[in-house]
Amino acid sequence: MTVVPTLEPLAYHRAVVGYLTTSEPEIWAWAMAQETRGEQVEEVRATLLRQNYRLDAAAHPEIYEDCRAVLAVLAVEAPVTIYQAPDTTMNAALWYVPGEIHLVLYGPVLEKLSRVERVALFGHELAHYKLWSIEGGIYHVATTVLDHVLAYPNAAPSHAETARIYRLSTELYADRGGAVAANATAPAIATLVKTMTGLLSVDAEAYLRQAAELEATKPVAEGVTHPEIFLRAQALDKWWRADVDLEEWLTERIRGPLSIATLDLLRQQDMTAMTRAVLARLAKDPAARGEAVAAQLRRYFPDWGPDETPIDAAALAPARIDAATREYLIALSFDLAMADPDDRDAMLVAGARLAQDYDGLAAFREALKRDLKMNRQAITRLLAPLDKVSA
To answer: Pick from 132, 156, 184: which residue ends a domain?
Structure first.
């Protein structure tokens, strides 16, 4: 007997809600107060009626029967209204109203999906409603906050990146809802592929094998609102099988390595912690004992203390950080080395030693030439102690 996994918010959902409630309490309180009001509900209903054809339950009993069955499986209680949109693209969408479910179908989904695939489609869309309704609606409030922030022209790249990953996480959650509703992953995966391609017949297992062929390239999600279908299929399969490496895999595929060029709000904190730990590692070098270096460390972090924890090599593994972050760490090493001209060379050697941990020694040498205008002979002399140790 198949043990159906429990449908829970993803770790990223919880982390973003935790960040917003603790770091932006006033914005969070405002968003809580903005949850859908009566006049907004009426406008949503009117818009749906203007733009779509409403499917009556009496005329389409099987569709509503399947929808109610999915609601029972997902433990959701709310009245449902289903619409058909005048659109040729296969898809479906939930229009969120607290206490009401409005489900819009697009294109020939009723004709091209089998009944169990239709159940999976309903599970996906109704999972959106479940996520946004549970725990007092906090996950919908987070969506509201991020959407409003992005509406401002001065929204930071970190806001856009947070919203992107939050939306991708929501789609992964909804995919899980589709599998739970169908009690299997195959219908949910087949539905994803059918809506992408318009095909009448899809082999879910064959598509998983196709997706597995991409694993060697270590692909990272590039979608703005939806991860690529091959990643979603793999993520769903791993979740259903309770893969112990799922969270690490999701981080690698959905968020990618830590990159200073694409930090979300959470990774801004991670990058700050990494910066502090890297400086602590450099500060342990004997050449860093002077007051000039100590003063520079306090300029970075006014609360700098003697008991800072140095970063370990595992945190700097090449797979964990990207090229832009490696360049940042090199610049950080240079900046600290410039604090005391008398100890500059020794501190540069310490920076080069650190660069070995993140496979950045070649880039470090290039930066010495590019940024510090050192010639080849000077670089060779500078790094001779390092080369002796390596030998």
So the answer is: 184
DSSP state of 255: I
Tens-place pLDDT, residues 259-310: 999 999 999 999 999 999 999 999 999 988 889 999 999 999 999 998 999 9
Report the distance separating Cα 146 and Cα 161, nearest Å. 10
309: nearest Cα among 340, 342, 338, 273: 273
pLDDT value, residue 231 = 92
Task: For residues 313 and 356, give the distance between their C-alpha atoms in angstroms, rounded to a whole number.
Answer: 9
**152 and 269 together in one domain:** no
Helical (H) or strand (E) element with 233: helix 229-240
Question: CA-to-CA distance for 185 and 209, rounded, in angstroms?
Answer: 14
For the chain, the domain total comes to: 2
Where among 168, 184, 200 does a domain terminate? 184
343 is a domain residue:
yes
Other C-beta atoms within 10 Å of 103: how many? 22
Other Cβ atoms closer than 10 A to 32: 15
Domain range for 101: 11-184
Q: Do residues 8 and 134 touch, judged by C-beta distance below 8 A?
A: no
216 is a domain residue = no
CB proximity list for 389: less than 8 A, separation 6 or greater? none
The answer to whether position 242 is within a domain reads no
Helix (H, G, I), strand (E, B) or coil at 36: coil
Q: Does 240 fall in a domain?
A: no
Beta-bridge partner residues of 91? 106
CA-closest candidate to residue 224, choices 132, 154, 292, 162? 162
Tokens of 9: 């918010």
